[in-house]
Amino acid sequence: MAMTQDDLKRAVAQAAIAHVPANCIVGVGTGSTANFFIDELGKIKHKIQGAVASSEASAKRLQGHGIEVVSLNDAGSLPVYVDGADEITRHLHMVKGGGGALTREKIVAAASRKFVCVCDASKLVDVLGKFPLPIEVIPMARSYVARQLVALGGQPKLREGFTTDNGNIILDVQGLQILNPVELETTLNNITGVVTNGLFARRPADVLLLGTPDGVQTLTA
Ligand code: 5RP
After folding, report:
1. Measured from the CB, is residue 101 less than 6 Å from ligand 1?
2. Among the atoms of ligand 1, which is closest to the Cα of residue 102?
């Protein structure tokens, strides 16, 4: 029987468990692929100390499995962070934030020594940018930031009816030429009122576990 996208996500989530050291506190991402990983962590919960969650949703799911959720400030540096992506290149640069959790994801990733990205094969691209780039913005800066994004050649669209875990809004930006993700990540973060943008290039993934119908492929930058 043909493998579904969920089968591929489950396969990479299972493979990611091999990257979790014994007795550690694990950094945990957000989204449907991260949810499969949380379910796998539930099966080995007695071998870990706990987890730092990148969203309220992931914290709830972790707790539902009886896994202790620790604040990042208490946990300190983490050995590993496991999360999905909306797009990823062979350089392991990513677009993230489809679920709106990009800021906390970037913080937990920054505090982790290894970033393991778990994706089904549909997420691998040659050039980032087909997926609209999520940008978390302080609400009062919405119009100002949108004008700056238009000046950069983007078409920002407010994510309607959505507030981030940090109380902010998301602008989803289409039409940006993302040929140099490291540079664009910095440029966008320098717009006053931007909290974070969904480019994860300055701190790319270290390992990509890619789910394909032929099995899980491991890519490193
Ligand atoms: C959430 C994210 C997710 O990692 C990204 O949206 C991928 O989600 P999924 O695994 O459901 O495709 O960045 O903010």
Report:
1. yes
2. 14
- 166 CA to centre of ligand 1 in angstroms: 17
Determine whether the shortest distance from the Cβ of 197 to ligand 1 is under 6 A: no
Ligand 1 site, residue 103, Cβ cutoff 6 A: no
Pairing of strands 94-95, 199-200: antiparallel
Distance 31 CA to ligand 1 centre (A): 4
Identify the CA nearest to 207 among candidates 114, 73, 142, 127. Answer: 114
CA 83 / ligand 1 centre spacing (Å): 8
Q: How far apart are CA 101 and CA 1, in angstroms?
A: 34
pLDDT in tens, the chain (221 residues): 788 999 999 999 999 999 999 999 999 999 999 999 999 999 999 999 999 999 999 999 999 999 999 999 999 999 999 999 999 999 999 999 999 999 999 999 999 999 999 999 999 999 999 999 999 999 999 999 999 999 999 999 999 999 999 999 999 999 997 999 999 999 999 999 999 999 999 999 999 999 999 999 999 98
Residue of 135, 96, 103, 136 whose CA lies nearest to 119: 96
Q: What totals of helices (H) and strands (E) does the chain contain, helices first?
A: 7, 13
* Catalytic residue set: 105
- pTM confidence score: 0.97
